[in-house]
Each structure stands twice: as structure tokens, then as C-alpha cells.
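Checklist before submission:
- one chain only
- standard amino acids only
- sequence pasted in full

Submission:
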Amino acid sequence: MEYTHLGRSGLSVSRLVLGTMNFGPQTSEADSHAIMDRAHQHGINFFDTANVYGVTPGDGVTEEIIGRWFATGGRRRDKTVLATKAYLPTGDGPNESFLSALHIRRACEASLKRLRTDYIDLYQMHHIDRNTPWEEVWEAFSVLRQQGKVLYFGSSNFAGWHIAQAQEAARSRHFLGLVSEQSRYNLMTRWAELEVLPAARAYGLGLIPWGPLNGGVLAGVLRKQKQGGSPRGGSGRAAVALGHHLETIAAYEKLCAGIGEEPAHVGLAWLLAQNGVTGPIIGPRTVGHLEGSLRALQLTLDDGTLAELDRLFPAPAPNGAKPAPEAYAW
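Returned file contents:
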């Protein structure tokens, strides 16, 4: 397993992140435990979850599954860099969502209880809260750190200017601030390259892409359909994206076949090759899915393949593959 520092921090994390969103809704507790055990066997130490993941949004089932796995011993907690999130509603009350000091405190305590641990390695804001001042957010976070309940803080789904706001507010308090940003980023969704990724690099945040295969569309969906399967990318929002980009996806799968690699592995390997990316989140539903993802760590895409991927999935910039403001100015 290859490891890297999480942003500018000294924390070492694996270059694949185990996403746990399927634990409970689609994967049984026994299979979830097996996936986490196998992840450790392969050296994956970075696990991502959220307080709202579960059978019903906000029920905390996924954190509870992880907590019971920790409780089985074997130094499982010590071997894990544990990341969870707060922001989304956990109930119907007016203070059971967003990022007020009250909700942050309650949400953290509830996650610690469900996860059966006394600290969280990386506590992430699941979304920007436009109505709570940064002074309040960082004050609440500093208390958690002083209490030893959280070690590092991260953001998710932030714009570039939100990252700048957060970091400047933290700097004024002489606080470390954010060390990571979790953003939607894949070959088909490259908007992060305009401002989020440059801001993350400038402020020393590691980028953690979620949805690295765009809901399964980049995982060989057309080939699986021809083989009579029921691929994940064939339904919901992914099906809509596939309908709009059918020819491009067909060309992508042909390119992957030409180099003898699975489309899913190529999509992950492309992300791993991007400057500033810590590691994409993989969300296996089975041990087999987890095993398959490991190939991406061994795959180095040559310059010709990278250029062809850029041609198929161009950066979102009328002036070519440049970050803002050059992307839309001069």
C-alpha cells in the first residue's frame, strides 16, 4: 500500500479511502466487517463515514456497524484513521442540523458513542453552513480538539472561496484549520479543477474525491449491459448522465479495452495521478469489489492515455485545461 500525508498535516493515510455509505443499506453487518478486515489486510487505513449514513438518513446505523467492528478488538481502532461528518439533519428539531456550536457538540458526542471510540481522527463539515459565522464554528471545533475528541478537521462540498474563508478565519485564531476537502471529482465531473483544487493546494488541503466513477458510469456500464448484467450506472442520476454522454462512454470503454484495463481501474488511476489528490473514496458493497479496486494502485497511465482521456473528458475551461481565473479570462 502507498501512503501519503493528508494535506499539510503529518497524518499518513492510504491512497485509497474506504467509503462506508453502503454499510447497512446495501451491505450486511457481517459483510461490512469482512470488508473492513480485508481493507486492513491490504493496508487501507483511511475509513470515511458520516453520521447520517444508514438505512434511514440520520439513523446512524453505519457508524454503529463500524463501532461494533472496533469493539471486536485486534487493535482495529488503532490501525484506522477514522473520518466522519456532521451537518445534515439527524432529527426534526431546529438544532439537529447545520453547524451551530450546539449541533456540533451534540453531533460529535453522538458519533463517538455510535463509533465506540473516544476520539475522531478527521471531523468533516458535510456542507458549508452559510448562516453560522466562522468564529462560532472554529470556537466549537477548538473545544473538541482541546478535549481530545477530534484531532483534525476537514470540509466537504466547499467552493474554493469557502476554503479560503475557513482558512483565513482559522489563521486569525492561530488554529491549524482544514487539512482536507472532500469533493465530487471524476473524469466526467472536473469542475473542482477550476477553483476548489487550486484553493486546496494553496492552503495545504488534501483533496478526497467522492463519486470517483460518477455513480458507476465510468465502471464499464455499457459492457455490463451487453453482458446482461444490472450495472449500478444504469439507473437513477447515473442513467441520465449515461444518456447524455453515450458516445463518449463507449469511446472510453474502447480506450480501456485497448490498454487491457478495466474502466473502473482507469478512472481511479486517473484521479490518483492528479496533483493534490490524497486518494479517492471507494464504496465497495462486497469484498470482491474492494479487491478489484486495488488494481488502480498498480496502474500508471502513460502520457498518451492521459492525453486521450483529456480529449474525451475535457477540463471545464473554455481556454483549455487551466485553473481559474485563466480558465475564463486571460
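Reviewer check: The chain has a mean pLDDT of 95.
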